[in-house]
Amino acid sequence: MNIEVRVRFIPIFVICTCGIISACSGGGSTTALGGTCSTPSIELPACPATGGATVSISGLITYDRVPHASNGGLDYLNTIHTQPARGVTVQAINTASNCIQTSTAASDTGNYTLTVPANTSITMRVIAALYQSGTPSWDFKVVDNTCSNIPWSMSGNPAATGTNNETRDLHAPSGASQVNGLWQYTDTRVAAPFAIIDSVYDAKALVLTANSNLVFPAMNLGWSPKNTSVSGEPTAGKIGTSSWNGSMIYLLGDADNDTDEYDYHVIIHEFGHYVEDKFSRSDSIGGSHGDNDRLDPRVAFGEGFGNAFSAMGSGDPIYKDSKGAQQSKGSTFDIDAASTAYPGWFSEPSIQKIIYDLYLNNNSGSAGFSPIYTVLVNDQRTTPALTTLFPFINAFKTRNASQATTVNTLLTGQSIDTIIDDYGSTETHAGSLTSGYIFPIYSSISSGGGSVSVCTTDTAGVDNKLGNYRYLKFTASAGSHTITVTGDNSSDPDIYLHKSGLVASSSVIQPITETLTYNFTSGTYIIEVYDVNLVLTGYKSRNNNSCLSVTIN
Question: Quick count: other Cβ atoms within 10 Å of Cβ 440?
């Protein structure tokens, strides 16, 4: 009869030259920050099958979860030291052969059990990764974007298995301690990547409530202590801000300035952009955004959805984002409050409240995230209109006719017209801007039908604000057509062409006139036009407004 022996292993956490948390050969205590070592590769081969006696190694994987104080800063004093690292990848490494003996995913309580050869030197390694093959499936890893996107991991000391079953627990500490009464990172921040992947665990679980057979595209989350708010090259840690860039999520890790590893709303918000991008469609142009901004409606929808998604995934409607010295400062806001100076179809807070309240309303019944997801992956993905609130709500009301009164109440509460089509054709609320710079939201244009004039404005701000860009709807016949946009002597027009997503653009730096010739298929296209010299920060050379004449031949 095998006897179970419980050992709490002190993991070896080393930041090597390129910034990898992994295990150096041999035992010993934590190596100093910035030290060099020889690390076993994450990409090890599987060990060949052998006969002989086996034993089981079981254990619990935990990490330090640092909660938020009421101001949004981190509260290290009340760190949860027993937070289970759910679903992470656990590997038994054959130390002598430097191969993976076997691996598994930790349970939702952080427990694991692996069968390994008896009398064999084994190192337990835990990777900040969620992986499952088959249906459903996923492959999410927290990687060091400043070191060739190598996954973050922690490992225990190598130890012989003997002939008895045993337990090896591994724990990832925050690395924080008090120095002269102030919390500082005095050791390796091993818990950080495990906190990140644990937030992803919740985000993934939310999506699976809508589609339990979903195959998630593989995705990395780039985090490093070197990741700062300076914009530049991500491989050097210059990520600008935590964001989804269309292929991976980058997260800030700059201690005493802005770290996001414990900011689960930030992480789940960015995961929401991944979901929108990979399963639905996003026409958002991104950029800075805030509660009181009157945003381009594509940006407003994307960011409002991301905030609502963070509340759904975390189960907490109070958004928290830590920053500052000792991560002691931060910001909070109520996703369900929609407190804004400018409610409307262009307001991030308005949209987050509407989507979150639709979730709560359904959740009190039986549907939860499912009806939101259904609209996103069907109607929002294929609409000829741009991805704003209008096609989302139009489809939601069509698919959930019994909830029309509830939806209309939410819309009215945010100063949005209740007669909804994909194009916002009946909308009249201009956010205190001159209506001629906003409406109609989509002007109609035809080939050979003469010019259509649209005017843009910088009154609400620049880069991605309401009135910066104007849209025209064109029902095309198959064949080549040329779009011409003409402004005044101070203008530099640009053209973007959409057909259920961006299909072509013309953005030559030249004054007065821009043209785009494209071989159209039949169907509805959206033409987006703007004046670079009015709305883009790096090129802005004029103020107030710019009127553009658009023709198609």
Answer: 17
